[in-house]
Amino acid sequence: MLPTLRNVSKISILNLKRPVHPMNLNLTLTSIAFFSLVCSAWSLQIQVVPPPVPYASVSELNGIIGQLEQTSEATQADLSKLRIERWKTDSGTKKQTLGNVDSIKRNLQGALPEIVTQLRNSPEDLTASFKIYRNLDALYDVLGNVTESAGAFGSKDEFQSLSNDLSALERSRHSFAQRMESLTTSKEAELNQLRTQVKTLQAATPPPPPKKIVVDDNEPKKPAPKKKTIPRPPAKQSDTPAQPAPPSGQPK
Q: Rounded to the nearest 5°, which phi and psi values hold at 231?
Protein backbone atom coordinates (compact mmCIF):
# COMPACT_ATOMS: atom_id res chain seq x y z
CA MET A 1 0.00 0.00 0.00
CA LEU A 2 1.40 3.39 -1.00
CA PRO A 3 2.09 5.88 1.82
CA THR A 4 -0.50 8.60 2.29
CA LEU A 5 0.58 12.01 0.99
CA ARG A 6 -0.27 15.30 2.67
CA ASN A 7 -3.36 16.97 1.25
CA VAL A 8 -2.21 20.49 2.02
CA SER A 9 -0.05 21.97 -0.73
CA LYS A 10 3.45 23.00 0.34
CA ILE A 11 4.41 24.75 -2.89
CA SER A 12 4.45 28.22 -1.38
CA ILE A 13 5.32 27.30 2.21
CA LEU A 14 8.78 28.86 1.95
CA ASN A 15 7.21 32.22 1.05
CA LEU A 16 4.42 32.23 3.63
CA LYS A 17 4.53 34.01 6.98
CA ARG A 18 4.87 31.36 9.66
CA PRO A 19 3.21 31.73 13.10
CA VAL A 20 5.15 33.21 15.98
CA HIS A 21 7.34 30.51 17.50
CA PRO A 22 7.86 30.49 21.30
CA MET A 23 11.61 30.65 20.75
CA ASN A 24 11.14 33.70 18.52
CA LEU A 25 9.11 35.35 21.29
CA ASN A 26 11.84 34.67 23.84
CA LEU A 27 14.50 36.12 21.54
CA THR A 28 12.36 39.20 20.94
CA LEU A 29 11.82 39.77 24.66
CA THR A 30 15.53 39.31 25.31
CA SER A 31 16.38 41.88 22.63
CA ILE A 32 13.87 44.38 24.04
CA ALA A 33 15.19 43.96 27.56
CA PHE A 34 18.76 44.38 26.38
CA PHE A 35 17.89 47.55 24.45
CA SER A 36 16.06 49.03 27.45
CA LEU A 37 19.00 48.40 29.75
CA VAL A 38 21.42 49.88 27.24
CA CYS A 39 19.31 53.04 27.11
CA SER A 40 19.27 53.21 30.91
CA ALA A 41 23.00 52.68 31.05
CA TRP A 42 23.54 55.39 28.46
CA SER A 43 21.44 57.86 30.43
CA LEU A 44 23.53 57.07 33.51
CA GLN A 45 26.74 57.45 31.50
CA ILE A 46 27.79 53.82 31.77
CA GLN A 47 30.26 52.90 29.08
CA VAL A 48 28.61 49.97 27.26
CA VAL A 49 31.15 48.29 25.02
CA PRO A 50 29.97 45.12 23.23
CA PRO A 51 32.38 42.29 23.93
CA PRO A 52 34.24 40.84 20.94
CA VAL A 53 32.85 37.65 19.45
CA PRO A 54 34.83 34.71 20.86
CA TYR A 55 36.92 32.75 18.40
CA ALA A 56 35.25 29.51 19.49
CA SER A 57 31.83 30.94 18.56
CA VAL A 58 33.02 32.05 15.11
CA SER A 59 34.69 28.68 14.53
CA GLU A 60 31.52 26.83 15.54
CA LEU A 61 29.39 28.93 13.19
CA ASN A 62 31.78 28.42 10.27
CA GLY A 63 31.60 24.66 10.79
CA ILE A 64 27.80 24.65 10.82
CA ILE A 65 27.58 26.90 7.76
CA GLY A 66 30.13 24.79 5.88
CA GLN A 67 28.08 21.67 6.50
CA LEU A 68 24.90 23.47 5.45
CA GLU A 69 26.45 24.72 2.20
CA GLN A 70 27.55 21.20 1.29
CA THR A 71 24.03 19.94 1.99
CA SER A 72 22.58 22.71 -0.17
CA GLU A 73 24.79 21.83 -3.15
CA ALA A 74 24.04 18.10 -2.85
CA THR A 75 20.30 18.73 -2.55
CA GLN A 76 20.20 20.96 -5.62
CA ALA A 77 22.11 18.35 -7.64
CA ASP A 78 19.79 15.53 -6.54
CA LEU A 79 16.67 17.58 -7.27
CA SER A 80 17.94 18.27 -10.79
CA LYS A 81 18.29 14.52 -11.40
CA LEU A 82 14.65 13.78 -10.62
CA ARG A 83 12.53 12.47 -13.50
CA ILE A 84 9.17 13.40 -12.13
CA GLU A 85 7.52 13.14 -15.55
CA ARG A 86 8.19 9.38 -15.44
CA TRP A 87 6.61 8.81 -12.05
CA LYS A 88 3.61 6.52 -11.97
CA THR A 89 1.10 8.93 -10.52
CA ASP A 90 -1.52 11.44 -11.61
CA SER A 91 -0.75 14.81 -13.19
CA GLY A 92 -1.85 16.73 -10.10
CA THR A 93 0.75 15.07 -7.88
CA LYS A 94 3.45 15.63 -10.51
CA LYS A 95 2.55 19.31 -10.79
CA GLN A 96 2.59 19.75 -7.02
CA THR A 97 5.98 18.01 -6.71
CA LEU A 98 7.47 20.12 -9.50
CA GLY A 99 6.27 23.24 -7.70
CA ASN A 100 7.84 22.07 -4.44
CA VAL A 101 11.15 21.32 -6.20
CA ASP A 102 11.17 24.78 -7.79
CA SER A 103 10.42 26.40 -4.44
CA ILE A 104 13.30 24.55 -2.74
CA LYS A 105 15.77 25.51 -5.47
CA ARG A 106 14.83 29.20 -5.30
CA ASN A 107 15.29 29.19 -1.57
CA LEU A 108 18.67 27.41 -1.67
CA GLN A 109 19.94 29.77 -4.36
CA GLY A 110 18.53 33.05 -3.04
CA ALA A 111 17.09 33.38 0.47
CA LEU A 112 19.43 30.98 2.26
CA PRO A 113 22.74 32.50 1.00
CA GLU A 114 21.48 35.95 1.98
CA ILE A 115 20.83 34.87 5.57
CA VAL A 116 24.19 33.08 5.70
CA THR A 117 25.89 36.35 4.69
CA GLN A 118 24.10 38.17 7.52
CA LEU A 119 25.34 35.58 10.00
CA ARG A 120 28.92 35.79 8.76
CA ASN A 121 28.83 39.56 9.26
CA SER A 122 27.27 39.24 12.74
CA PRO A 123 27.98 35.72 14.08
CA GLU A 124 26.02 36.09 17.33
CA ASP A 125 23.00 37.98 16.00
CA LEU A 126 19.98 36.26 17.56
CA THR A 127 17.58 37.59 14.94
CA ALA A 128 19.63 36.25 12.01
CA SER A 129 20.20 32.95 13.85
CA PHE A 130 16.49 32.40 14.33
CA LYS A 131 15.79 33.48 10.76
CA ILE A 132 18.04 30.77 9.34
CA TYR A 133 16.57 28.20 11.73
CA ARG A 134 13.04 29.06 10.62
CA ASN A 135 14.12 28.89 6.98
CA LEU A 136 15.65 25.42 7.49
CA ASP A 137 12.46 24.34 9.23
CA ALA A 138 10.41 25.31 6.17
CA LEU A 139 12.92 23.65 3.83
CA TYR A 140 12.74 20.44 5.84
CA ASP A 141 8.94 20.33 5.52
CA VAL A 142 8.93 20.80 1.74
CA LEU A 143 11.89 18.52 1.07
CA GLY A 144 10.26 15.88 3.25
CA ASN A 145 7.16 16.05 1.08
CA VAL A 146 9.24 15.63 -2.11
CA THR A 147 11.16 12.73 -0.56
CA GLU A 148 7.91 11.05 0.43
CA SER A 149 6.63 11.38 -3.13
CA ALA A 150 9.89 9.98 -4.53
CA GLY A 151 9.56 6.96 -2.28
CA ALA A 152 6.01 6.36 -3.45
CA PHE A 153 6.33 7.03 -7.18
CA GLY A 154 10.02 7.48 -8.09
CA SER A 155 13.01 5.21 -8.39
CA LYS A 156 14.94 3.71 -5.50
CA ASP A 157 18.01 5.86 -6.26
CA GLU A 158 15.95 9.06 -6.24
CA PHE A 159 14.44 8.20 -2.89
CA GLN A 160 17.78 7.25 -1.34
CA SER A 161 19.52 10.43 -2.50
CA LEU A 162 16.78 12.69 -1.20
CA SER A 163 16.65 10.77 2.09
CA ASN A 164 20.35 11.46 2.62
CA ASP A 165 19.81 15.16 1.84
CA LEU A 166 16.89 15.31 4.26
CA SER A 167 18.95 13.75 7.05
CA ALA A 168 21.80 16.21 6.46
CA LEU A 169 19.36 19.13 6.52
CA GLU A 170 17.95 17.89 9.81
CA ARG A 171 21.45 17.82 11.32
CA SER A 172 22.01 21.42 10.28
CA ARG A 173 18.68 22.47 11.71
CA HIS A 174 19.50 20.73 14.98
CA SER A 175 22.92 22.41 15.13
CA PHE A 176 21.42 25.86 14.72
CA ALA A 177 18.81 25.10 17.40
CA GLN A 178 21.56 24.20 19.87
CA ARG A 179 23.53 27.30 18.94
CA MET A 180 20.52 29.57 19.49
CA GLU A 181 19.98 28.06 22.92
CA SER A 182 23.61 28.71 23.81
CA LEU A 183 23.46 32.30 22.50
CA THR A 184 20.28 33.01 24.46
CA THR A 185 21.92 31.83 27.68
CA SER A 186 24.94 34.01 26.99
CA LYS A 187 22.82 37.09 26.25
CA GLU A 188 20.85 36.58 29.47
CA ALA A 189 24.12 36.54 31.42
CA GLU A 190 25.09 39.84 29.77
CA LEU A 191 21.69 41.28 30.71
CA ASN A 192 22.13 40.31 34.36
CA GLN A 193 25.57 41.91 34.44
CA LEU A 194 24.24 45.10 32.88
CA ARG A 195 21.35 45.21 35.35
CA THR A 196 23.84 45.04 38.21
CA GLN A 197 25.88 47.90 36.75
CA VAL A 198 22.79 50.07 36.30
CA LYS A 199 21.59 49.46 39.88
CA THR A 200 25.07 50.17 41.28
CA LEU A 201 25.36 53.46 39.44
CA GLN A 202 21.82 54.50 40.35
CA ALA A 203 22.62 53.95 44.02
CA ALA A 204 25.89 55.89 43.79
CA THR A 205 24.46 58.86 41.91
CA PRO A 206 23.53 61.69 44.37
CA PRO A 207 20.15 63.34 43.93
CA PRO A 208 20.15 66.76 42.26
CA PRO A 209 20.40 69.75 44.72
CA PRO A 210 17.17 71.65 45.45
CA LYS A 211 16.61 74.86 43.57
CA LYS A 212 17.33 78.08 45.56
CA ILE A 213 15.18 81.20 45.24
CA VAL A 214 17.11 84.45 45.96
CA VAL A 215 15.12 87.53 47.06
CA ASP A 216 16.91 90.90 46.77
CA ASP A 217 15.50 93.35 49.38
CA ASN A 218 17.59 96.24 48.05
CA GLU A 219 16.00 96.16 44.67
CA PRO A 220 14.33 99.59 44.10
CA LYS A 221 10.61 99.55 43.92
CA LYS A 222 9.06 100.25 40.61
CA PRO A 223 7.07 103.53 40.51
CA ALA A 224 3.33 103.18 40.41
CA PRO A 225 1.92 103.82 36.99
CA LYS A 226 0.26 107.25 36.54
CA LYS A 227 -3.39 107.39 35.81
CA LYS A 228 -4.21 108.83 32.46
CA THR A 229 -6.53 111.88 32.52
CA ILE A 230 -9.19 111.78 29.89
CA PRO A 231 -10.23 115.32 28.71
CA ARG A 232 -13.94 116.08 28.92
CA PRO A 233 -15.70 116.94 25.68
CA PRO A 234 -16.87 120.66 25.32
CA ALA A 235 -20.51 121.51 26.10
CA LYS A 236 -22.85 121.55 23.14
CA GLN A 237 -24.32 124.93 22.11
CA SER A 238 -28.10 125.23 21.58
CA ASP A 239 -29.26 125.56 18.00
CA THR A 240 -32.19 128.02 18.97
CA PRO A 241 -31.10 131.74 18.55
CA ALA A 242 -31.44 133.94 21.61
CA GLN A 243 -34.51 136.28 21.71
CA PRO A 244 -33.66 140.06 21.85
CA ALA A 245 -34.62 141.83 25.04
CA PRO A 246 -37.73 144.10 24.68
CA PRO A 247 -37.12 147.89 24.75
CA SER A 248 -37.71 149.61 28.03
CA GLY A 249 -41.09 151.36 28.55
CA GLN A 250 -42.98 148.91 26.41
CA PRO A 251 -45.42 146.61 27.98
CA LYS A 252 -44.33 143.13 28.08
A: -65, 140
